[in-house]
Write a structure and sequence with these properties.
With about 325 residues, the protein is of the alpha/beta class. The radius of gyration is 23 Å and the shape is globular.
Length: about 325
């Protein structure tokens, strides 16, 4: 009886050890990389995410969990989870999104990176840009005659536009932060302050172009793809400001110590394939590919036809916190 009980207790103890090991494996880190899944954090438009995730799953068989949110919110989530990462890829924002906190990500260079426009390449290797974007002025044609529409960023500072220009808060929008840097390049903080006097601030990147497209606002500062969503309606016009635009690579970052590290690489490899870049411009008007091998649609001007300013990537990343604090001071003064 004693031997039987001892054997029973030993068996139970071994079982408990096995269960404990299983739990540690499930939460511990590297062993999770062998799973057939991927956790994707993304601020990219839903239709685009669904389109490419479906194609990725079909090609690889890897099941993808999609978690959406604003770029700034998702970046904060990655930071909060740094001790035990739950996501594998952060897809959205711009190069400054991950560049501002590189300790949260790992460098990776997909095989197709050689086809990326040299201006979009990340010299530090953290960003694997699938697309690129610029900021534009969008106006409602029913509310603003074409002849009176702003032709430059400086035109937005005209007092007649006070309270008529929608702009997403750069504290929560990486695309708006790119616009802020764009304006700083043109006329430094004095120029930014003049523009701010006419702005109505939104907390979502989609709010400015949506308000203009639906006739709720005269003007908006919007990212290129968002402005194009309403182009076919004939209700909006798009202006590429004559005093200069910056064109930034979109953000695609692999999260450090993510649970499915190998699958994260496969996702980056997949998106940068020429076939996917071409599918981007054919299915999502206004999305600018990062690859030079893709033919642009007729409605999208090539970067060579625009007044393109050199974006100070390192400076914008290193000073992001201070520049956003300065922006908030300007907005308080503007009120």
């Amino acid at each position: 009886m004693f031997l039987a009980n001892l054997r029973g207790r030993s068996t139970a103890f071994a079982t408990a050890l096995a269960l404990g090991a299983a739990v540690l494996t499930a939460w511990g880190g590297e062993s999770r990389a062998d799973s057939n899944s991927l956790v994707l954090y993304t601020s990219t438009p839903t239709a685009q995410v669904d389109f490419f995730v479906k194609a990725f799953e079909k090609e690889t068989g890897i099941k993808t969990e999609i978690i959406t949110g604003g770029t700034g919110d998702l970046l904060n989530r990655v930071k909060a989870e740094a001790d035990r990462p739950q996501g594998d890829v952060l897809w959205g924002g711009s190069s400054t999104t991950g560049g501002s906190q590189p300790e949260l990500f790992v460098p990776y260079t997909p095989p197709e990176s050689a086809k990326i426009n040299a201006a979009f390449a990340d010299p530090k290797g953290y960003n694997a840009p699938f697309d690129a974007f610029t900021m534009v002025i969008v106006y409602n044609k029913d509310l603003v005659p074409e002849a009176e529409a702003p032709k430059s960023w400086a035109d937005l500072a005209d007092p007649k536009w006070q309270g008529k220009v929608r702009f997403a808060n750069p504290v929560s929008s990486s695309s708006s932060y790119a616009a802020l840097v764009n304006w700083k390049l043109i006329g430094d903080w004095d120029f930014v302050a003049k523009l701010a006097k006419n702005f109505i601030i939104d907390h979502s990147s989609s709010a400015p172009f949506t308000a203009v497209g639906q006739g709720e606002a005269e003007l908006g500062v919007a990212y290129e793809e968002g402005a194009y969503r309403y182009l076919e309606s004939g209700k909006v016009g798009i202006v590429y400001p004559s005093d200069g635009v910056v064109i930034l690579p979109g953000g695609l970052f692999l999260i450090k110590d993510g649970p499915n590290a190998e699958n994260a690489k496969k996702f980056a490899d997949f998106l940068l394939q020429p076939e996917q870049e071409q599918a981007l411009v054919e299915n999502f008007p206004g999305r600018r590919p990062s690859s030079d091998a893709v033919k642009l649609p007729e409605t999208m001007p090539a970067s060579s036809t625009l007044h393109v300013l050199d974006y100070p990537t390192s400076e914008a990343e290193q000073n992001q916190k201070d520049w956003l604090a300065k922006w908030q001071e300007i907005m308080i003064d503007a009120r």
